[in-house]
Amino acid sequence: MNQVYARTREDGVVTYIFSDMFENPKKTDILLKSGDGEEFIHIAEGGVNLYTYDNLLQYKIENGEMIKRSTEELERERVNLLQKQLEQEKEKNYQAVTTVLRQTVCNPNLVINPNFSVNQRDGYVVKEGATVYFDTEFTQAANTSVPAGYKVEEIHKDYATLKTKKAPVESILYAKIEDIEKGYAKDSSSWSEKQYTFDRWFLRGYATLIDKENGILFQKLSEENQGYALLGTIIDDVKDLKGKALTVTLCINNTIVSATVEEGWSFEEGEHTLTYIQGFDNFRGIASLIANGAGYLEIRIYLANGLPINTSCMVHWAKLELGKIATKFEPPERVTELVKCNYYYQEIETISNVHIVTKDKMIAFVPYASMRTVPSLSFKTNYFNTYNDGVCVTDATTGNRIEGFTFKLNNSKNIDCISVNIEKANHSLDKTTCFFMAGRRNKICLSAENK
Hints:
By secondary structure, the protein is mainly beta. The protein contains 2 helices and 33 strands. The relative contact order is 0.10.
């Protein structure tokens, strides 16, 4: 005696009929009939066709019996299958369009200086592992293998003077010119303290940034579970972005990662995270897009508290754009980005006439490009009356430096102009006999970053 079984889907629709002559049944298979003869052995010859003309399964098990499914039931399945096929086709087309957009279309990037090409501050650090010295002749080694994070305070012709948290205030260390590189170091783990580095990008926490050909090397310097490092940038021209879909994309460790923000978001009191990018490239870093109640957006890249000291990553570029698709990144023209950056920060070298002269004081008016607000003013270094490429007064005829002056910066009542007060008792100069100079070693710095 042989037995015929039916195998079904979860909804009871029959997918397979077979005889135990050729196959052992499973526990879930349903016995249809038993007996002797061909109809219990060669099922296909029994005349049962499980499929309709359009390949739908047309039988089901109901109350232990195999019956045909109704016309209405089959029609519902046809509609469902068609909808599923349309959704799959839609998704396929969407992915194809997305791929094309990412490769060919480039939406405007809302991030200023997205690939760190503008670096007006020109920071320097000592290369990790280099030797530093107590003397400028490099005969007395102070440390034969310095760790990361040694700042360079001043660069001279033959040596660099270091600013380091390792040495007492009264100690001065020196490094060879070939042992320094462009970059920045921050030796405070204070959350509130921002140190601006590459234009529009700031550091928080204890970290370094090293200028590389294809981006920056971002390195955490605090011990594991004793602090974090954060690289961030602020986008403050966002009044037209509120509630719109956004996509933030980063290229980190040569891997492109992105996340989207759905429509309907708003600025709330304080700050809140709109989206996260986690675990990029098997790296335990976190990036986020933050909305601040003061009305600006902030991109943050974290090297978090739990990561060990010297954990690092290469950050190549960042992009923030409207919409839910990450389009192609195109490196911006440096000149265009410099104009944008100058709205926030500027460094000025100048040779200027003096415009107002009294017995003990002269005033030179130095123009600057328009900024987002009245800037704070400072000189970049302490080079006064020392080098011809520092801050000094020069003789209009010989070009020689005239020493003994003090210099003060003020915001002028003239729009987009600085007044430099140049003071020396009985200087005996006039408008035609001298120039004011701010050279490359001591530029005038204008900052509207934190206004």
